[in-house]
Write a structure and sequence with these properties.
CATH topology of one domain: Aldehyde Oxidoreductase, domain 3
Shape: elongated
Strand order of the largest sheet: 3-6-1-7
Structural class: alpha+beta
């Protein structure tokens, strides 16, 4: 799974969660490397396990001739307190890393396969993610 080699701060602030004020992405919104891409239609936090699950589906579907690019990286840590623990006593322990994604961001790109195979592979990968997605072409 993806996670940073080294971080400056082990725990971050949680950041705002109001989805109506999040806006849309301005960076990474076009298909830059491959022929087809998977674009997020809404804001989400995608965990590294979910990125890995989508990557496995894509790599199995496109085969050896296809090429895959992952356009997001989970560098934001999230914490979780154990079950049945009282409030207080500080912030929880580090649970994993997430990639904050805004609407319009291209998450994955593929190349080297025909159009029906690429579209089906990206559709399957989109089912593994916690955000609605759309397959886009260059």
């Amino acid at each position: 799974m993806l996670f940073p080699k080294k971080v400056k701060y082990r725990k971050w602030h949680t950041m705002r969660r109001n989805p109506s004020r999040v806006g849309v992405a301005t960076r990474g919104v076009t298909v830059a490397f491959g022929s087809f891409g998977l674009k997020a239609l809404g804001p989400a936090r995608i965990r590294s396990q979910q990125i890995e699950a989508a990557r496995k589906v894509l790599s199995r579907s496109i085969g050896k001739t296809g090429r895959l690019w992952i356009r997001i990286f989970p560098d934001m840590p999230y914490t979780k307190k154990p079950a049945e623990v009282k409030l207080g006593k500080g912030k929880g322990d580090l649970e994993g890393y997430v990639a904050p994604v805004l609407a319009g961001r291209v998450l994955f790109e593929v190349d080297g396969t025909d159009e029906p195979t690429a579209r089906e592979a990206l559709r399957k990968a989109g089912t593994k993610l916690p955000v609605k997605t759309r397959v886009v072409a260059r």
